[in-house]
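Hi, here's the filled form for the chain we discussed.

Project: internal
Contact: R.S.
Residues: 314
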Amino acid sequence: MDRLQSMRVFQAVVDEGGFAAAARKLDLAPAVVTRLVTDLEQHLGVRLLQRTTRRLSLTDAGQAYLARLRSILGDIDEAHGAAQSHTHQMAGTLRILAPPVAAAHMVAPLVAGFRRLHPGVTFDIDVDDSPHPAVHEYDLAVLSGAVQVDADVIVRTIILSQAVFCASPAYLRRNGTPKQPQDLLQHQCLRLRTRGARLRPMTLIDPSRDDLAIELDLPAVMTANHTDTLLRAALDGAGISSQPVDLLAPLLKTGQLRRVLAPWITNRLSMVAALPSRKFMPLRTRAFVDYLVEQTRLAVAGLGRNAPPAPGGE
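And the returned structure, exactly as it came back:
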């Protein structure tokens, strides 16, 4: 027996003054209404209604039960409305999980613009680089496409990207611009390393020549297991670094960094939005994912139109 439905049917029978009227209001068959009220009385072990051919009345037990029932059903309806408001209203707190680079360069820069559109939304961002992200504890997780998630997690691609070489204009003025991959052997390289692992030869790929690949054992004047640390050093002129092009987009656009060795890349990357469930997804979550995808792709698309030329024709 659906106890909650039986309670609502019992209340409707009393409010409408009879079983037939309650059936019409609830769009149920009269026999179903009768059965549900009977089932409720059997569950409680007490008669709630006095039935005669001419009238319907509450027993003392029914009267006491109905008084409590109205309060209980009222609380349930209020709770239901409050929960639905998180789905249907553009308000509330959006809880986001992201690794450091995505949090700093993809999510945080969009907060101000999104809140100008939807001032009722606030943000709670957890920055965590765990290989096993707790996606189900958040409204949204922004992750590398290489991260494994549970099969029931909904994944939407934010952007497909590449890792490219970059350096500051000041570094290139002092040290020159590499023209071919082997030139990197004479440059100051800033390299990403995996915690606890030694550096391996770097693979360079030329997409313009059917992904021609070569390997170079590049020396490094600096290594770090943190992309942002390498980026900061590159901005200050410490050397040449390989970075995701979507992360570099605003820096290349303003000329703070220059891409070098185009069209060579070092990797193909993707960033995804991981969502614990599409069912009952809050409107604020859906809206922010759309905004994140749109703004990230616009930033990268505008790079080719707006980036200043690199020294030496790059």
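Let me know if anything looks off before we file it.
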